[in-house]
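Sample 3 of the quickstart, ligand adenosine-5'-triphosphate:
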Amino acid sequence: MAESNSADLMDKIVSLCKRRGFIFQSSEIYGGINGFWDYGPLGVELRKNIRDCWWNDMVRRRDDVVGLESSIIMHPKVWEASGHVGGFTDPMVDCKVSKQRFRADQIFFSPVIVDGKTVGYVTVLESERIAEELLEKAEAFKRKKAIQGKLEPVQPKDFTEAKPEEIPQIPSPATGEPGSLTPPRAFNMMFETYVGALRDESAVAYLRPETAQGMFVDFKAILDTGRVKIPFGIAQVGKSFRNEITPRNFIFRSREFEQMEMEYFIADDDDWAKWHRYWIDWCREWLISVGISAELLSEYDHAKEKLAFYSKGTTDIMFKYPFGVQELWGIAARGDYDLTQHSKASGQPMEYFDDVKKKRFVPHVIEPAVGVDRILLAILCSAYVEDQAPDEKGKMETRTVLKLHPRIAPIKVAVFPLLKNKPELVKKAQEVRDLLRPYMTVFYDEASAIGRRYRRQDEVGTPFGVTIDFDTLGEKGPELADTVTLRERDTMKQERVKISDLLGILLPRVR
Ligand code: ATP
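Result:
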């Protein structure tokens, strides 16, 4: 990433996504709807490539993982048994004056302490610089109130840690004034709907907040197909819905998003820590294989005392987004909790019979769970570069380029006739397009000067460009006839290759 720390990198990515048809605000003509996004022509291809790579690597190329596509709306009892109806909540705070809502754990506050005495409170929203921003606000507070004495270091806490007597004194992030924030209360993030014609309690159902429960609920059915032996995994890709209190950071936190999850079932006496480590490493390697910069990745182990009681360990793979280091992929060791819960609630056994050890047990599970949209954003952040390249007249200019991995790039190759008003060039270029099209996404472009056409493709991450010129037509002699210029996006190097060799050269490089 060229400018990983620059504050405007995110703005540049958002604007590129809109301008070039990757991502639009949903329902924009009606003013948009917060937390929902549409993927345009190039965004759809990019998403599909991410999903396909994951599916190929996670399911098709392994003997021990099978696929599943369960329904989005399931029996409401699924979500009671899983604990979502009772506990899938975030702590919510209202500002009574501005009517804005906040997630309590995203509001940070500190007392302003001068000469050992608390003289007020300051607040900021979660950011990369919480302590610095709180200190700046504390200094400004002291100046404004003309308080003399020594300002002591700030003590950042999030709003869930506020004592009842502190709450009326903590300023609202919306108004900057104290007295309007409510105490935090649990807000369930599941979207409710009704199934059937009646709109009463008995018809309530939920849009799934994760795909994982499908794998637990169908565990028995998949076991009964006889295709799988422990250890094995069930994988699924699909939409999930969470009524997030504060969707933000572009597609990072949305209310409708897509997940790629896998439940890996192991024996109850197997070494769960070994499998946990195996899947953390697998996920990390996979992210690098689709073009995410290794140096922007890190790991975060959840503190044991903050884990759910059944959880043995959770590690998140973190990515350094322009707005901070955030969770990209969570890898959780969940013990036998989910299968046991569904077994109790449904009355159906969820056991596996090991016919070698002659033993029956409820398998334990390791769950790598990731969002397609968060991967897509991490890929864009890793790939966005501004460098210098010569224009038509050889003068250096800034070039925006998405250095997308060819596996992931929405368009693999662009085909250009040098001039659009020469029918022989156009005909030949269209032949090249038709030759490549059955094997990869090809974009044919004959509009404007060739340099500008290259730039347009650099900006959307097309790794290769093929130009058909007068040499192709044999005008400089028969040895160059039926050869084209193949340009590589990152190095901008051009080589002359035979049309008959093109497919053989390109195919291994884009797969
Ligand atoms: P967070 O703490 O960021 O809300 P989470 O820990 O609740 O995430 P999980 O329930 O573990 O997330 O979901 C698994 C993965 O699904 C996350 O690692 C993330 O990639 C993705 N994900 C979760 N919530 C969202 C969302 N609102 N928008 C986009 N992706 C999401």
